Amino acid sequence: MLKILDFFDYAKSESPWMVHFCSGCCSLEMAAAMGPRYDWERYGYIPTPTPRQADVLIITGLVSKKILPALLRTFAQMPEPSYVLAIGACAYDGGPYNDSVAVIKNATEILPADAFVAGCPPKPEAIITGLEMIKEKIRKGEPSAASQGGLWKQMKF
Amino acid sequence: MEKLKELIGTFDVAYVENYKKVWIKAKLNKASDLLGVAQALKDEGLKSLVTVSPTDFPEENKFEMNYFFEDLLTRRNAWIKVDIPRELDRCEIDSLTPMFPGANWHEREAYSVFGVKFTGHPELEYFLISQDYYGKFPFRKGFDWKAHEANLIENMNTIFESFENEHVENEKRIGHAGSRTMLNWGPTHPASGPIRLKVEVDGEDIISVKPDIGYVWRALEHLVEEKDFIGALVALERICFMDNTNSMLCYAQAVEEIAGKEITPFAAMMRVVLGEIGRIVSHLMGMGGFFNNMGLMTLFMWALDVREYFLDVLEDYSGARIATASIEPGGVRYPLDVNLLDTLEKAIQKYEDTRTEFYTIFLKNPTMKMRAAKTGIITAEEVESFALCGIVARASGVKTDIRLDEPYAAYDKIDMDYMTAENGSAMNRFEVLFKEMDQSMSILKQAIADLRRGIESGEYDPQKDHMVKIPKKLPAGEAISRVEWSRGELMIHLVTQDTIPPEDQSAKRQPYHDGRAPA
Amino acid sequence: MELLFNIYVFPGTLFVLVWTVFVFWFFRKFMAYLHKRIGPHYNGPAGSLQTLYDLSKLLSKESITPHNVNPYLFSAIPILAPTIAILTVVLIPWTPELTIVDTSYGVLALVVLIGIEPFLLFLTGFGSNNKYSFLGGIRILTQMISMETSFFLSALSPALLFGTMNLIEITEANTWLTTLILLPGAILFFISILGVLEQPPFNIPDAEQEIVYGFYTEYSGTNYFLLKLAEFGEFLVVFAATITLFFGGYRGLFFDSFLCLFVKMLIMAMLMLAIRASTPRIRLNQMLAFAWSYLVPLSFLNMVWIVIARLYIVGGG
Lengths: 157, 519, 317
Fold this sequence. Notes:
The complex is a heterotrimer of chains A (about 160), B (about 525) and C (about 325). With about 160 residues, chain A is α/β, with parallel strands linked by helices. Chain A has one domain (about 1-150): Rossmann fold (3-Layer(aba) Sandwich). Helices cover about 40% and strands about 10% of the residues of chain A. In chain A, the strands form two sheets. In chain A, strands 3-4-5 form a three-stranded parallel β-sheet, sandwiched between helices. Chain A has a two-stranded parallel ribbon with strand order 1-2. The relative contact order of chain A is 0.19. With about 525 residues, chain B is of the alpha+beta class. Chain B folds into three domains: about 1-130, 2-Layer Sandwich (Beta Polymerase, domain 2), CATH 3.30.460; about 150-210, no CATH class; about 220-510, Orthogonal Bundle (Cytochrome-c3 Hydrogenase, chain B). Chain B is built from 16 helices and 15 strands. The radius of gyration of chain B is 23 Å and the shape is globular. Chain C has one domain. Chain C has helices at about 1-10, 15-35, 50-60, 70-85, 105-125, 130-160, 165-175, 175-195, 210, 220-245, 260-280, 285-315. Chains in contact: A-B, A-C, B-C. Chains A and B meet through helix 2 and helix 3 of A and helix 4, helix 5, helix 6 and helix 10 of B.
């Protein structure tokens, strides 16, 4: 019995599907990671059109104030267990837009991420590495950071 | 040109002067003259109002309004300035939207961020900015945004509520009887990107589409004010990552104009090379996206494959694939390693190997023609009245291309022509994209030949010529700069003042509409 | 014992599951090849375990039932859909010896069981309480009505030619000559099944770029797995039906076996994928115009041709 359950846990870690969500410029490099040279499908990642079938939400860099409700709703629509990967400097602290008036500087305080990828934008290899980190986390059975806390729980989106 | 000057001279003006080759710059004394001037210009043939851009001068207690008129056919431009008072209740000016429909969004934006009221505007609503800034006019100097940021959760809740209210209102307006409903296309839609189209449908028929933008609004103009002119580059190149070189190029030109510096011919040619690579990279994504929206991923993937080779060139040159920061005021940032030209030739070869496949499978695709040949038709008159530019304008047969109209960098040394198509449908825009790719390849080849020749003959020194020093402190001044961007025309209006470098720049970006109608 | 084997192993549950895992992988790998990519690679030899993991993961994820839907309708359809789809395997002659239900109404039963499937998918869209799902559901219904006319008509052409509705007899009667005669019918049938299976260029009901994911939009976890199972089960029976009706089923050049059927089915899958990789989706109104002004009249013409062929070429009388 234990063996079978282990298999399902392993399966969960080996097939993270991404919800197709582009909030900022880093989604360009996400597209490149999908493309022929980097091809993240080799590792089993595929984008899904609807959040209902997704396991991982990628915050692709910049999160403007206007898109935050969409981001949170998308995350809330994903089935458990769902994980968050934050890529790019903007997702961490606003990056180049740290002193802009219209950008959420603490996107990951609002929606805590399970892994960060640095860069502006990060290279496709780095994005894939970030996803591997998420895989590792799923394999260990750790709960996602967003389910543990974050400002998003106080917001009425 | 002289006729235009005379025409404007008949009004009450502070000055009328020639500016660059294709511009007339004038300042009106009275704001009430604006409508008259605009009408006269329209009658003269300047049918496009390109952008409306206010500049804030708190010390002199005024807003300076800038209007840019353009005649796409004869390539004459007029830049009209007029002062209006700065107090919130008194900063009013006549709206030009009834006369020039293209002014609509620009005026709404100016209203949203500066609070300038346009009397006579048909739908002067807030626009672009996020809902928590409604009525606060964040771009006015002196707006305390730190205090505004302090209560983030409250601000966010304002935004959430406004979306919720909008939804409730729609439900009330449309009701549940019948087959009409409201669909949101974006911003989290598989094909949308950061735009939201509010699509009202009746079953399968689209009744109306209302775009809502601002989902990647970063208040770049404000950001540039905060930084010096090199720091601003970081923000500027991120206007759009697809083609970042040309936006840097545009900004660098504006700074150079204010500083009064000329760049070397070598740097100019390098700018052509980098600019064209940016264009190619963006066009490849554009071609892929066009088919992607019709449910076919193949071209997107193949285009990404070719794109990587061009990104290799950028990476070899600057160390970064996308955020290259390679064009700076004063020239280009890095010296040239001649081997880079080989990498570039390899990339061109890669495109040419794939070109036939692109051509036969996708450009000649019967299903694509069935779907797109009669979709999203934009006529030449509409191009003029909405001041469209770039590929959209050229696909409707309007010959406009800043590279030829007002040559910058080293485009005057390049042999090229307007790439146009006939009918202005979505398919024609795809066609023009394709033609421009070929054109860019030919430009690149010419530029490579020129660089090789120049380096061999000793005319260019690739190790030293790339930069001219620009003083850290810019004099007070004002400049506009235009480039042909991959997605249209990019125009930057840069104002510098004597104090530290508070700059105010207003960028105009005319988006590249694809006109792919779903359903 | 044999019955148990038939139900649980071949051509029953296990076979369909293995087929789903295999064909899901095959689709992705072949599609990746057409995209100049590699496709699943690291999990198992040539990534062949990838889809097994994907489907197992779906089984262990949360299945969300949205607010305000009828939970019975919402959850019943994902059980019904694969059942109906898989039920059809009993009619197909898989090997010369193995046909579970050998009936003289084989063609009719086949056509009806395949034809009922889009209706179940319509119910998924209808029961999801989501605008996009509902639009997707309506689109399925529209497409089903327009496509199934020509689907039925062309499916009947072998029955008409051979004068029997028994699938084994149809398979056995097949020769090179009859394949040639049936070719127009086969092409029409193939186009119609692209419509019935919602494959490009007729993937209008789950058009990602227009209505998110159509009727699939609200389904997650196990429910989504079951719908995927239904989709791939549907592929299985439709491919097998095409081969049985038009291309001689299990019969091969040198020997008759399940392998021949399987290879022929893979060739069909590759054809379908090649179309998917080179043809953009068409609009609903264009699909309607195409179905009613070309496909249906042509299917009638095809019937006339079959009758003529039966009278003068095959000479059955």
